[in-house]
Amino acid sequence: MPAATLTWADDGDLYTSYGDGFGFEPFVKPKLSMGVAKVVGPPTAFQGINIRSESAERLGDGKKGLKASGMLMVDAVLYMWVRNANNSQIAWSGDHGVSWRWGFRIDKSFGSPAFLNFGKNYEGARDAYVYTFSQDGPSAYGIDDGVTLARVPKGAAQIAEIDGIVEISRDGDTRRMKITSAEIYRDLARRGRLVASEQGLEPPATGVPTPA
Prior knowledge:
Elements: E1 7-8, E2 14-18, E3 35-40, E4 47-51, E5 67-74, E6 77-83, E7 88-93, E8 101-106, E9 114-115, E10 129-135, E11 147-153, E12 164-171, E13 174-181, H1 182-190, E14 195-197, E15 200-202
Parallel strand pairs: 8-12
Antiparallel strand pairs: 1-2, 2-3, 3-4, 5-6, 6-7, 7-8, 9-10, 10-11, 12-13, 14-15
């Protein structure tokens, strides 16, 4: 259970996620590719508690299943980076991990992102930003020679609520981020204008304009 998936929440508990397992005792069934849990109590008498969540739990082993790579609580909202999603995707919970909403997905680099945690409910942060970082590659299972760092103003973290596909491009030393609404892709899918590829659903190379 990587330390990057632990965060200190506003209620004093530590929230986390586990992968390819059954969680804490009493174990959950079936085996989950991704499950949510928390650790409560003092260092001398701590206890792990599984949090059952239909909107977060996923099946599948190894590369075939979604897994959390980072978790952070800011202003009583729990955020989770999820990998193995054709790169990574953001999810968030406003009820301490019971129910989750899914937001944008990054389609380039950021294959296994984590958050920089800083104290209980992020209260120890030295500035007004939330920081996230990842190896500069598309997968948690690859070897990459760089690290990518990004930040967002803490008060503007609502960007996570945009449901869509994130495209990251380089222009010299500048990186640009473009979010295409998932509703555009759903509309194209309804009209049979999406094709399958190893990277997921995307518009055909010819005949269909790329969503703006």
